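Quick one: Mitochondrial tRNA methylthiotransferase CDK5RAP1 from Coilia grayii, structure tokens please.
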Amino acid sequence: MFSQVKSQIILLTLSNFSPSYAFRHAFCSILGLSCLLLVMFGLCVLPVYREKAEQTVWNRLKQLTALKKRRLKAQGPMKIGLLGCMAERLKSKLLEREKLLDVIAGPDAYRDLPRLLALARGGQQASNVLLSLEETYADVMPVHRTQGHSAFVSIMRGCDNMCSYCIVPFTRGRERSRPVASILEEVRLLSEQGVREVTLLGQNVNSYRDMSEQVFYGSEPTQLSRGFSTVYRTRQGGLRFADLLDQVSLIDPNMRIRFTSPHPKDFPDEVLHLIQERHNICKQIHLPAQSGSSRVLQAMRRGYTREAYLELVENVRSIIPGVSLSSDFIVGFCGETEEDHQESLSLLRAVRYNIGFLFAYSMRKKTHAYHRLQDDVPAEVKQRRLQELIAAFREEACRVNSSLLGSTQLVLVEGESKRSSEELSGRSDGNVKVIFPKQEVPSLHQSSCTETISPGDYVLVKVTSANSQSMRGYPLCCTTLSETAAHSPDSLLSTLQQQQPSITEPPNDCSHILTTV
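--- reply ---
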């Protein structure tokens, strides 16, 4: 996303934090020159999967370098910078060999950007990719730059799990959690700005533990999911993820709460019961399996077996009936056999996720696998296994979503459908896309009135068709999270039926939505 600042500076970034800090320290005045153009990339590199994302950045950097040379004589100097994980991992190559950048700032060095940019203005290459044991940017309030009704709130940084395929501990550093008070302040501000859904973010979000609090729970040891282990010594004391989730959910009863990305080991029953009890915590959990083979899971250093994972799934579903599950899978990891692959397929079919993130393994430098294991699965085998996993996922996801035909889903409206300006699109509690006609709906509170559906509204939608990617339906009425918590959808529909008896039937001009997407 490009944002123009005083017509001279362009920031290109995927980070909410960096523009906030740039604006606060008035980079326009620091850099001075009215004709200066500054382009800054922010790229978060996922643990193992995103070779294409990195290649896209490489290509764009080369394009910008060519532009920089062309505009130097005619329009003045141009500076190019890179922020985030890729900056930390590829510093020497970016600065010395390719010579594509003027500024590099790692994920823990954003406070140093004013100094780095001042050096770049003086003609020097400037970099800071040092990782920190303490930095959480707790005192810097991010800028909510979009006009949408959803926002992300970072609650922790880094990861201690050291999975053998994962680069995150080496690019993001050790786990450290942002203080609870800072997080609650940001969520309150977002609520005041009209944000209707907040996603708590972290590399290992549910291992959150705020050690800065004065209240400690030293007598209560860290509870892992049954059958799970860690490669590090678990910490004691402080406020845990359940404590944070509890307090966040109390801020605004009409704001949805999600969180990602968790590790399956950090789902004690107290977290699951809290999700079930609070109406505004989405009944959707991401449980990254990575593989269905216990042998491969051991090589990945995931800290659990296939059996322990399935036991966790059973426990989650017993405590949270109707919960929606999503997962990550890696195919073609070091030493993966055809039998291992079949176990991943069978696990995927047994659990029946409605959302999946599936990738072929790509070796990363610095990781345990890079130093200790051999990337011995041929590329063509990886791709074949990936396609088989994708096909199995789509089949099962279609079944899961189709099981909701005829049900009434509470949907947070995001905006117009990408395919038609006559339709709206939003997300269900289970995080599945729901598409429905753009039309007025009966008012729940005034019997003879209708109201227009707008982005940010919560709408009850009757599901009429589904596939592996989305569901379709027709809107019944606008409502709120609190209203649907106090009264079941059936009760609300009963109220509507008394006002308009035909409300549960599709309107005549919406018959096309009965066909499968």
